[in-house]
């Protein structure tokens, strides 16, 4: 059943993104301002304590880097095999588009609600961690943006999630997590993810404006498979420069325009309904018995926050609330994200 679902998602990925036409008027590349490419680095910390809670998705940390914008995808120096995968999922090397490649190394940690209980808890999320790498190809104009992500990683003890959480809790004086003996087994994971967004300008005056962004995205793999649509509204300065990496969870990517010579800022509110086919952090290991709960397929994510880019620096803070990811628990989960970017 899982294999059939995964094949269906991958098929939907290709159909949704390979044949979509341009839905908004795009300015030719030659009519847009192309700045000299720069290298960016981003540090991101996600934690549910930002939202005043502990348990569930409890912590994440990532280091991202990238370079852009370029006129052609080949100039990004990204691997040809990654470019070929992006082409297969509808991210074309169009000379009318800006292009960039970004990469991330990240760790995510999940625990049940009561981390002081040393016993197995059958009706709560399992202890789980992921250590992963993400490669992303970006292609965008002032009104449309495409992304392809390849995620590779491992869940289980090899993710070092147990050690990371225990060190952080010891430093901060928090409760020691006692149930890591019941975490997921080691398993390599992957996900192919594609996204297309459209930007519609509602109002613009003296650089300040309001815009609306609609996003279609999908993911397929044993890490997670889903299809989703996102609706976002923003208010701020120079919005047309900062939409390329926008997301309902913006801290999980790197903005290839972060840190520019001009000041940019905006506040945003977004909502994303999604249908999730599989999630290893909920379903448990794919080919081995492991702790698990019952996946709730229909999910909803809300997020709000602000972004500020000035000269060489970029700052992002967001708060997200998600409906429950599994049937055994009612109620929502919350976490916050803080990202700091620097242009080298």
TrEMBL record:
<dbReference type="Pfam" id="PF09982">
    <property type="entry name" value="LpxR"/>
</dbReference>
<protein>
    <submittedName>
        <fullName>Lipid A deacylase LpxR family protein</fullName>
    </submittedName>
</protein>
<keyword id="KW-0732">Signal</keyword>
<dbReference type="InterPro" id="IPR018707">
    <property type="entry name" value="LpxR"/>
</dbReference>
<feature type="signal peptide">
    <location>
        <begin position="1"/>
        <end position="23"/>
    </location>
</feature>
<dbReference type="InterPro" id="IPR037107">
    <property type="entry name" value="Put_OMP_sf"/>
</dbReference>
